[in-house]
Amino acid sequence: MASGKNDDYYKEPKTILCMSAYGELLNAQGYQIIGCSKCKFGKDCSKAHKLDELRELDYYRKWYLRDKSSIDIYKMKSHIIDVIKSGLDLVKKIEYRQKIIAIESLNFVQLLEFWYDITCYHRKIIKEFNQKRHTSTFIEGYNDKRQVPGFYLENEDDVWPLERTFHMCEQYLSLSKDRVIHIRDVCCGNNNCKFGVHDKKYLVCIENMMTGNCSCDSVKVFTEKKAKMKEDALSIKKQLETGLDENGFKISLSPENKIALTKQFNAKVVEFNNYVRLTHLTENGLIPFSIREIEYNKTMPTEDTAPVVKAVAKLVKPGSKK
Prior knowledge:
This protein has 322 residues and is mainly alpha-helical.
């Protein structure tokens, strides 16, 4: 029965690229992607066939836009350590057990990456149990999903999106025009990838997050430099198109000069694209880890403020047993 609604308008938003269509798109850009097949769904495909069809997941969009002043990353670290330690006796994988024992030595970034790793591993086991009809078979040493630690956190909506901004997606980084790549080894997540970011500008400046200071250019300096790079590139492009220099004088556009100007233009474009400013969470209200730590230490009792506990000797009568 017809719904009376515009079917295209009411389709679910597309948050991931169609593997078949993306492979074709990459090949058109000069990559050597093999294993591609024509998408059998065509215009009815639930996945995006073009980059402009992609919609960012609300989950990530809300994280980027959110005021982060209420996020306490020092408290987050303590909570994650407690949760992981509590599951030690249930963990069977030796390398994970060894890392849990030494968990206090991990810095904040290493801790979140470890939580991601150990959590994904064990929740995958739980998922496999949920999909099984029979529970008699062992999965990774477990014979009951109730034995598997899930390492659930109180603030996972903050931890998941934060952890992914510490690193780039490895599959995306491995994408190269210099070698043949199978389509199954290509990440189709784009900005919704859960394994890492695909755009360097989404990477978090770790130094800024931890201390509040960093050597990155300010927003003002970054904007000015970016504008100058664009201006230089456009100036060279204009010389190539008109034969006039930046002052309006006629220049010789011999084949050699054209090649030289083209190289200059391409170099400026690469410089422009590679000059990226990382995400600075303090600009969205985050209080740096070191400041949170100082605040926490101020609440801890010192020798001067700690309550004095007097030792009371047990009275023993002469001749009696102690």
